[in-house]
Amino acid sequence: MQNFYSKILLMIIFGLLGQILMGCSIEPKKSVPEKYRIGQISFHRVCAQCHGAYAMGGGARAPTFLQEKFNPKNFPNRRIVRAILNGSDSGSMPSQINKVTDDEIREILKYIRYPQKEVGII
Ligand code: HEC
Q1: What's the CATH number where 62 sits?
Q2: Is residue 52 one of the residues assigned to a domain?
Q3: Pocket of ligand 1 (CB under 6 A)
Q4: Which of 9, 17, 42, 108 has the most CB atoms within 10 Å of its CB?
Q5: Closest approach atom of ligand 1 to CA 99
């Protein structure tokens, strides 16, 4: 009988571990051309938990980049960089400065523009 309970306990522990591991990052599901791959990986590691996979927006947490407001004319790359480094003006997005390198920021910018082109915002 004790054996039975320890099995249940183990199952619960592994179940919880799985949940925690899966919850940490959103896996990219859509495959993108090779030159956007690095940006996609960085975006999913750092931004997607709030902004959603494929820059689509994460429900209530953060806006999607697939809207006119974020096309390069209205929201040029330097403003995106500013948001990454300083956080958003309202403060509801925290600075991501410690989570990305300069190279990763460059790749993330490229990656954000790609689905914008696909849906016709650019
Ligand atoms: C912890 C959640 C979170 C993470 C992680 C995050 N963001 Fe944000 N982001 C937000 C929220 C919330 C807003 C809306 C902020 C507002 O309206 O002030 C936002 C807004 C923005 C904006 C618009 C800023 C503005 O002034 O309107 C940009 C650009 C942006 N995020 C880019 C990124 C990029 C690129 C990454 C990854 C490097 C990232 N964010 C990671 C939550 C997040």
Answers
A1: 1.10.760.10
A2: yes
A3: 46-47, 49-51, 61-63, 80, 83-84, 88-90, 92-94, 96, 100, 108
A4: 108
A5: 38
* SS3 call for 66: coil
Per the structure, the count of domains in the chain is: 1
Cα dihedral 28, 76, 65, 26 sign: positive
CA dihedral over 82, 88, 91, 93, signed as positive or negative: negative
Q: Which residue has the higher pLDDT, 55 or 117?
A: 117
74 Cα distance to chain centroid: 21
Distance between CA atoms of 90 and 114, rounded to whole angstroms? 27
Domain holding 28, by residue range, is: 24-119
Tell which one of 66, 74, 92, 93 to mutate to probe ligand 1, the residue whose CB is within 8 A of the most ligand atoms: 93
Q: How far apart are CA 83 and CA 78, in angstroms?
A: 9
In this structure, which residue's CA is closest to atom 27 in ligand 1? 88
Specify the pLDDT at position 9. Answer: 59
Q: What local confidence, expressed as pLDDT, does residue 5 receive?
A: 66
